[in-house]
């Protein structure tokens, strides 16, 4: 606890700064009325005043988050600058270059800082502060913990122990030196940040936006686009930038990045993978060109009775316009030709109306929207086959084909359709949103090649911040490295890749459990170092299948009764059972499947939980979450790392469904291990030496063996080479 005298001195400073802030607010509010001159001038003054007012903190918000001392000065750091009546700074912006020592100073590199204080406040009242004296650290170097070496103090750890809400908080007070280094990277680059669960990569990306908006005078909020993986996540992060005083930054989720958002149409994994592949761009372009209907030989394009245009000249005019910048601009060019030619062919051109020309053009060059074009393409095997070229096989056509709805308004769109619609909008209308000078993409590891195309075309120079975790990549096109994503997004900006190595948010006990999946799920990934202890070990609840939903809801209610922000993470197959149980018990909850997050109990799918964090998470049936999917263990890894404090696992099968250990030579008196015990991974307090060290080749053999048996039993040996070659093509090898 800080000395009472020092607390009083700090409180006096806080009170003075708050009074100066409120005088500035009053001046800005009165500015339009005090402005002399014409109404236009007064309006301009009001717009400027309103802009500065929007950036000001609320009247009861703490004026500062901390302070630091050098030999020459003592500076207070806050979310917004506060000046005294003479214009001298009382508090500097956290984004300002002068605030850099507050974040960068560590024991190894104090960069001239003698001491720093991190304030703990309630509104603008100073409750306490943590003080770091760098000379003191140097004097007890042998006693320093690894956290102290890394510059992680009690303020960071205390913030992580506070209750979560339905919104992501800013981290201005707890930005770590390694995070600050990434936040202040220059605008002119494609920055890729790899970070495991709880490393703070999402908040780093958002705070980088705020830092850039403050330090790049030419960058306006409307020039920035933040893209999240789904509507729930977008809602979760949407308050961070306004809380930092940065309004008007556009937030979109990848499922709405185009003329039509996804409405959750289901499709199998293989179809989604096919639609996400880059070759779909060529199919769409060929299919669009084929929508033109040249006149057959011996026919004419009749405009009105007595006025018709010849076959050769009509088809030649259409061919001349087909290479225009977009389908619609080519159509306009062709329409203009039809109008000129028809007026020249009649003595009464005034009788030819716009409707007449529209009808004539429609017979050759039909009007299309992205939705109508894609609906008609996917609903026709003939059109798909005609556009397939050499890149698609008959099986691909069968996967893409689906029965079209009777009306376009009734058509349902899948997640992977969104990028196709966006590509179609580019081809038809010549644009698809933007452009933006800087784009932030969260959970970037899950983007398909077609989604990457959507993002790239919205960027003017390639300046982006991509954050994600390859170990959490669960989509069919999940990469093993960031290089392929960087290559697909690369424009003029240089590419930089960085890794966040410290895990702040997930407690060590919980992360140690989840990390046992990594050698199997993502053997190339080095896990982050968890820096904090949680309040308890994970709670493992084994139940009968009929009691699964009730046990999960009971656990959620117990946590919520303690005022905690709770997430129930369950496989899709159990979603309805959990909902039914919640309703039966009269429990109020929010369903993330509907894009909602409440402040108490929330129901989320394993993939839908990406990027979210809860005080307490209940993971239901981990074995079913992992399933038989090739990346199911990664999905389970995501589910287990959504909590900052408590984890309960409700299961009927095994806790961590890892591949069984290899059979090894045993001595005669060594007991044989049962298959059940071989698959069951011990949790806390149990010797883990029996957990096998994985080999990727063994996992591959477990998958390839049954596949080889199927091929042997169902096909002739002479077909095997062709099957293997097709497998290589399908896998992109």
Cα distance, first to last residue?
61 Å
Please work out how many helical segments DSSP would assign.
Answer: 30
Q: Could you say which structural class the secondary elements and strand pairing correspond to?
A: alpha/beta
Mean pLDDT: 87
Number of strands: 22
Q: How much of the residues is beta strand, in percent?
A: 5-15%
- Poorly predicted sequence stretches spanning 5 or more consecutive residues: 662-699
Strand order of the largest sheet: 3-4-2-1-5-6
Please give the share of residues in helix. Answer: 40-55%
Radius of gyration: 31 Å
- Tertiary shape: globular
Major beta sheet, specifics?
6 strands, mixed
Structure description:
Helix content is 41%, strand content 14%. With 733 residues, the chain is α/β, with parallel strands linked by helices. It has a 6-stranded mixed β-sheet. Strands 9-8-12-13-7-14 form a 6-stranded parallel β-sheet. Mean pLDDT is 87; it is low at 662-699.
Question: What's the topology here?
Answer:
Blueprint: H1 4-34, H2 39-55, E1 66-69, E2 74-78, E3 82-83, E4 89-93, H3 100-104, E5 115-122, E6 125-133, H4 134-139, H5 146-150, H6 154-161, H7 177-183, E7 190-195, H8 201-215, E8 224-228, H9 231-237, H10 240-243, E9 250-253, H11 269-276, H12 279-289, E10 301-304, E11 307-309, H13 311-321, H14 327-344, H15 354-364, H16 370-378, H17 381-388, H18 394-400, H19 415-429, E12 438-442, H20 449-456, E13 464-468, H21 483-489, E14 495-500, E15 502-503, H22 508-514, H23 518-521, E16 529-530, E17 539-542, H24 548-560, E18 566-569, H25 575-584, E19 590-591, E20 601-604, E21 614-620, H26 622-626, H27 632-640, E22 643-651, H28 675-679, H29 696-714, H30 720-730
Helix pairs in contact: 1-2, 7-8, 11-19, 12-17, 12-19, 13-14, 14-15, 16-19, 17-18, 19-20, 24-25
